[in-house]
Amino acid sequence: MEMADRRRLYGLRSGAEGSIEEFVDGHRRRRCRYRGLAKAHVQHVLTALAINVERLSLQKPTDAPYRPRPPTAFQQYLDKRGLPLPLRWRQGK
Fold first, then answer.
1. 16 vs 79: CA distance, rounded Å
2. pLDDT averaged over every residue in the chain
3. Is pLDDT of 93 > 50?
4. Does 90 score more than 60 pLDDT?
5. Backbone phi and psi for residue 69, each to the nearest 5 degrees, phi listed first
6. CB neighbour list of residue 79: distance below 8 Å, 6 or more residues apart
7. What secondary structure does DSSP assign to 40-51, as a single string?
8. Tens digits of per-residue pLDDT, 37-58?
9. Are 75 and 85 in contact (CB under 8 A)?
10. Is-contact 25 49, C-beta < 8 A?
11. How far apart are CA 1 and CA 7, in angstroms?
12. How far apart are CA 3 and CA 39, in angstroms?
């Protein structure tokens, strides 16, 4: 398996892991409240809907101008001293 394939697969996995962690820890859903597969399924679907509504409510409107995130303290430290940034530092890769 090539390195690009591994990065792509790991990116997918990291997104799924974060969603599961949010579901379990952020919404206290480690254990199901109801008995039975149908009731548990309904609970999972409703919780997923609630998570999506919460995420949508935190998004900015689409007509808002793009503003990049401010540099971190570490990035400011490196910039101030003229040190090079690590290869993948805040490049989205």
1. 34
2. 79
3. no
4. no
5. -65, 145
6. 71
7. HHHHHHHHHHHH
8. 999 899 888 888 888 888 888 8
9. yes
10. no
11. 10
12. 42
5-30: b (≥16 Cβ within 10 Å) or e: eeeeeeeeeeeeeeeeeebeeeeebe
| Phi-psi sector, 92: left (phi>0), alpha (psi -120 to 50), beta | left
Task: Compute the Cα dihedral for 24, 19, 70, 57 and give only its sign.
Answer: negative
**How many CA atoms does the CB half-sphere of 35 hold within 13 Å?**
0
> What is the DSSP annotation of 47-89?
HHHHHHHHHHHHSPPTTSPP-PPPPPHHHHHHHHHTPPPPTTT
Give the angle subtended at the CA of 66 by the CAs of 87 and 77, to the nearest 5°. Answer: 40
